[in-house]
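Sample 3 of the quickstart, ligand adenosine monophosphate:
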Amino acid sequence: MIDVEDARQFVLSGLTALAPTEMTLADALGCVANDEVLAREMVPGFANSSMDGFALRAADTAAGRATLIVMGSLLAGGVPSGRVEAGHAMRIMTGAPMPEGADSVCMIEQTVVDSVAGTVEISRSLALGENVRYAGEDVKVGQTLVRSGDELDAIRLGVLAGQGFASVRAITRPRVAVLSTGNELVSSGEALRHGEIRDTNRPTLVALLREAGFTPVDVGAVRDEYDEIRSTFERVAHECDAIISTGGVSVGDVDHVKGVITELGGATAKSMQVAVRPGKPFAFGRVGPRRVPAFGLPGNPVSTRVSFELFVRPALRLLGGHRDIQRLCVDAVLDCALPRSKDGKLHVVHASARFHDDGRVHVESVVRPGSHLMSAVAGANALALVPDGDGYESGEVVPVMILNTDALAHPRDEAM
Ligand code: AMP
Ligand code: MG
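Result:
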């Protein structure tokens, strides 16, 4: 058996980020910026009002009360005509450019308009610059907007769009082939004959990839035939940046995937018995002319999920150029016992975790072991990592990998 950490090192060592490509902002969400991006325009581009109200000279309100002559109205997108002289005010909408002469804006709610007299009454004194957004207040020309290595989230993409950029150079989003192997597999929709099962791994992996921000390429199911599996790997190695297959890495008579990966991967490949439960059988190698990483995951659905989290997701994040490739791991308080027996393996247990009043993450419940018990793990948002030994009693602390941080929310937060 090989330690999880050693297996992970075997996978990750030698992997580097994919080449950058120019992509539209719409396509770049979640990708990693390749270059530093500097501002080429200041934002705001001109002084403008942050309120619907009246543009005026603050000095006119110094006495704490003023009646000013209204001289027209300015909409956002409009061009100011005329100068605001002493004793005057111009009606102005949020985002409209400040007219010359005016230095402050009084919000409409704090004014009384006399439309017959054509005046506006203000009964407080305004601070100079009140409710004015100044040119360059948000972004100055030459300022760093995005650094190389930054993940392009919605707000960063918005900042780039705010500069008139339509595209950005970012690390290519990894395209990942997903295939399942097994003579027993039937795709959803088809009728099941005795002994056949539905292919759950492939749609699950496709969804896990999409959830993680990668582009899945569904290659379909392949029968347990060595040549068929090998030609599928060879074909997709040309088209994709990584390959994930499930099944066929254990010690069954037709477990051919491990042989294919070790044949095609040569020195870069290894068929492993990882010291982890579930997820012990695992094969990895770099295949094809571009030496793309190929992951042979075990066929049992829960094992597939665990191996994906331990090995595949970090590796694909590395390909995607991400700085942080690991999931958030925290020490959580156990609200239930987590017994296990010594077997030399790390036990990975699906669990439900949440923040409690003590400010700590608690494991509220755990899912009973069984690598085929897929529906049981469906609601879990964490994986408890239980080292070899006798397990834990309720109240003890266990390291957990968080799969869904939103679901950690304290009940109090749900009122928001
Ligand atoms: P294997 O690793 O090929 O020996 O498969 C281990 C177990 O997982 C067997 O019970 C298979 O029937 C099951 N299995 C394999 N592939 C899939 C799949 N794509 N979806 C659901 N179960 C699978
Ligand atoms: Mg099989």
